[in-house]
Write a structure and sequence with these properties.
Blueprint (H helix, E strand, L loop, with lengths): L13 E2 L8 E2 L5 E3 L26 E3 L25 E11 L2 E11 L10 E5 L1 H6 L14 E2 L29 E3 L11 E2 L10 H14 L3 E5 H6 L9 E6 L3 E2 L1 H12 L3 E6 L5 E2 L1 E2 L5 E3 L38 H4 L2 E5 L11 E3 L5 H4 L11 E2 L1 E2 L2 E4 L4 E4 L1 H7 L17 E8 L7 E2 L13 E9 L5 E4 L13 H13 L6
Parallel strand pairs: 7-11, 7-12, 8-10, 12-14, 13-15, 14-27
Antiparallel strand pairs: 1-2, 3-4, 5-6, 9-17, 16-17, 18-23, 18-25, 19-20, 19-24, 21-22, 24-26, 26-27
Length: 499
Amino acid sequence: MLACWPLGEERGDRVADAVGGREGRIINHATWMIGGPGFEADVPRFGDYDPTKDATRGHGLRFASDDLYDCRWKVTHRFPIPADARSGIYVARMEFTYEDKPRLYHCTFIVRRAPKRKKAPILFVCAANTWRAYSATPFAITPPSLAQVWGTGGIEKDSRGLPAYCLYRGHAAGQGTYQLGLRMPWPAAGPYVLYGGQTSYSHLARADRWPQTWLEAQGYDYDVISDVDLHRDPSVLRGYKTFMVVGHNEYWSREMYRGVEGYLRDGGNLLVLSGNTMGWRVSFNDDATVMECRKVDCPGNQMPPTRRGEAWHSHDGQRGGSQRESGMPGYRVIGLDIIGWNIQSNPKNFGPYVVEDASHFLFTTPEKSGLKNGDKFGWAEGAMPMANGHEMDIRPSTFAALQQEPTPEGAVMPTDLPGIVRIANGVLPWAEGGTPMDYFFRKIQPKTEQGGEMIYWERPDGGRVFNAGAIGSGWVLHVDERWAAVVRNVLAYFGVTKA
């Protein structure tokens, strides 16, 4: 025997030899398979299995033919960011010709606040983790048209055999995707990429741009970071009057989650114009260049439930899967959690909000919204865009009311935390299609058109939260002045004035 690699390291790019001193080096970042019991990969979903206490568990290292996490491209062009550049979302536009047709390639990037520049009252986080999670075809040649629908699996038409996998699309040989490299192209994060066809809906960078352009038009001063920045340094939240979570901010690390918890405990204010917020748990390697997500026990999983023993992350050894089953449920921080998704390309699958408490100060102070109980808002008066569609969030008590099967063995149905007030309820026509689910990700058939819930919450642990509970809530700020007035009232109550 020349060498024997037991693969006990479970992280990093080196493997030790148990017999001959021939150390191995992993090329192209293969995936460490953590936590599975040695002879039976199934573990209780709501149990207390701990791989570190399992002396018989196996160790594995999975290779895929298309493993690529860092292009290692050489820098050929540099553009210095001016020292006085405003923080925000920017794009580099490159022109090229392909098949005798002019094309555009867009590289979206974020400029953070210069260290010597005074902090704005608002810190605005972009959902870059979600942008990367959906970037299945990083080497796709952009289509000729400016606005183009990119599906969950990216742009499929590519016969070149290049790596094309993401958290919604397996590797070429069928293995599930557990890790993604950040040093790769992200064309799906382009500013004109759509997801909804005739609805003109988008859930990636464009969804983040809607509330950003509204802040710009309204004259608010703000700083912008990515959620990777928040992961690297949660203390970045200090000193801001309001933290805005927008778009489709679905993928959260423990560092991000705990950072926002701490910010709220210290009296911070959280304004959420996002849906499916805090849906899946992710972790990162030491230099935050590889993102890990172990999807299991939910529609769209990349791992069969019978192999739940492989749900532990190699980066930190902690349980993966949904946030709510990884010890970090969204409702504890933002009051709501995801109910499901519908067909975002069908205009009939979208709806507005309905006012439930028009006397609430956020509808009246300092600006009168003009809304009355029963009024519909958050839409273009019966036409697109509408706030409620694709993915939206609800309270634990609403989950309990919708549940149609007994609570699974070993699981606990949570209850609303004290202080949450629902001021409006979203309308979502499930009869037109979609996948509504209970708190344990089991499909249900709602008897109502339950959409995302709009809440205001003064948290007992500190801090205040306004949550609109839908990805499209930022989309409609430009078309519904009554809804815009509500958001202005939220910002005013959170201590934010216009520049």
